[in-house]
Amino acid sequence: MDQDALLSAWRAVDTTPKNTTELKSMLLEKRHPVLKRIRRQLIIETLAFTAFLFVYYDLFDGDRKPIYINGLIAGAMLLAITHNMIGYVLTKRPIRADNLKQSLEDHLFKMKIFAALSVASRALMAGCLLLFFTFVITFNTEKYWILIGIIGILLVQLTLLSGIWFRRIRQMKGTIDNLYHSNN
Amino acid sequence: MDESQFVQLIDQHQGIIHKICRLYRDAKEDREDLFQEIVFQLWKSLPTYSGKAGFSTWMYKVALNTALVAFRKKKPAIIYTPTLPDEPVVQQEPGQQEEQLFEALKKLNDGEKALITLYLEELSHKEIADIIGITENNVSVKLNRIKNKIQQLLKK
């Protein structure tokens, strides 16, 4: 296919147009596919964490534990909720850069910070929950092995989460390198 | 610019968005999602549009940025057909050229797709350089490599 044929094929691409009513509905935040998913996660986790904060003191003997442990639990839950809200805000932020290079580099920078926050908030929440629930336990050998198993599972989950972010960051870096630094 | 004027402009230029979605996403559902993300992002970013460059030039920048940064679902596209064909489906000539073109374009990396999209939309090298953020000379060099790559892919 020569150059003219390439251009002709491109011009002839079938693009079934959407009507203006459909286009207008896409301006609504509630129709945005990614924001919808984050919003759903935000609502579910906020309700779950809030419900936990309301019941944990009586249900899980919060009064038998030091204030700082209770503070850590509340802080960890709030951090997780804040992390989801930051993700929501970052997804809908407008593009301000003068060109693609600036906006991609800006996005990569923010992605790295959000990735660190994502992993840290999950690690902190897991650590605080573990500390809370094990504080009054008298450990024997069997219980120590169970604790090691639980920590192992949590570490696997954090490794998987880190892996997901690592791959996303690597993909974005690859795109930027191919566009701006590649000699191929 | 109010909402109605914006929607009219998008309506006039939506072909660009369709082509970008076709290039960057394989599954129909993913293309629909990306189309929506792009339109939403254009609306949100409208206050940053200074009017110095043409509306379509600004659109390319926002649309390509959105396509490049949007998360992709990893699940493979599974297409169900009601019956298995007895013979291979042979398409008419114009459709076949279009399919050949997209098969080749999809094998490019994301950055190359952005450059070739702007070239096929018949933007000047200067316009492409301004959108991408590289020099005009760099645009020429990269486009030559990409066009050669496409020709090699089309020969296979």
TrEMBL record, chain A:
<keyword id="KW-1133">Transmembrane helix</keyword>
<protein>
    <submittedName>
        <fullName>Uncharacterized protein</fullName>
    </submittedName>
</protein>
<keyword id="KW-0472">Membrane</keyword>
<feature type="transmembrane region" description="Helical">
    <location>
        <begin position="111"/>
        <end position="138"/>
    </location>
</feature>
<feature type="transmembrane region" description="Helical">
    <location>
        <begin position="66"/>
        <end position="90"/>
    </location>
</feature>
<feature type="transmembrane region" description="Helical">
    <location>
        <begin position="144"/>
        <end position="166"/>
    </location>
</feature>
<keyword id="KW-0812">Transmembrane</keyword>
<feature type="transmembrane region" description="Helical">
    <location>
        <begin position="42"/>
        <end position="60"/>
    </location>
</feature>
UniProtKB/TrEMBL annotation, chain B:
<dbReference type="Pfam" id="PF04542">
    <property type="entry name" value="Sigma70_r2"/>
</dbReference>
<dbReference type="InterPro" id="IPR007627">
    <property type="entry name" value="RNA_pol_sigma70_r2"/>
</dbReference>
<protein>
    <submittedName>
        <fullName>Sigma-70 family RNA polymerase sigma factor</fullName>
    </submittedName>
</protein>
<dbReference type="GO" id="GO:0016987">
    <property type="term" value="F:sigma factor activity"/>
</dbReference>
<comment type="similarity">
    <text>Belongs to the sigma-70 factor family. ECF subfamily.</text>
</comment>
<feature type="domain" description="RNA polymerase sigma factor 70 region 4 type 2">
    <location>
        <begin position="99"/>
        <end position="149"/>
    </location>
</feature>
<dbReference type="InterPro" id="IPR014284">
    <property type="entry name" value="RNA_pol_sigma-70_dom"/>
</dbReference>
<dbReference type="InterPro" id="IPR013325">
    <property type="entry name" value="RNA_pol_sigma_r2"/>
</dbReference>
<keyword id="KW-0805">Transcription regulation</keyword>
<feature type="domain" description="RNA polymerase sigma-70 region 2">
    <location>
        <begin position="9"/>
        <end position="75"/>
    </location>
</feature>
<dbReference type="GO" id="GO:0006352">
    <property type="term" value="P:DNA-templated transcription initiation"/>
</dbReference>
<dbReference type="InterPro" id="IPR039425">
    <property type="entry name" value="RNA_pol_sigma-70-like"/>
</dbReference>
<dbReference type="GO" id="GO:0003677">
    <property type="term" value="F:DNA binding"/>
</dbReference>
<dbReference type="InterPro" id="IPR013249">
    <property type="entry name" value="RNA_pol_sigma70_r4_t2"/>
</dbReference>
<keyword id="KW-0731">Sigma factor</keyword>
<dbReference type="InterPro" id="IPR036388">
    <property type="entry name" value="WH-like_DNA-bd_sf"/>
</dbReference>
<dbReference type="Pfam" id="PF08281">
    <property type="entry name" value="Sigma70_r4_2"/>
</dbReference>
<keyword id="KW-0804">Transcription</keyword>
<dbReference type="InterPro" id="IPR013324">
    <property type="entry name" value="RNA_pol_sigma_r3/r4-like"/>
</dbReference>
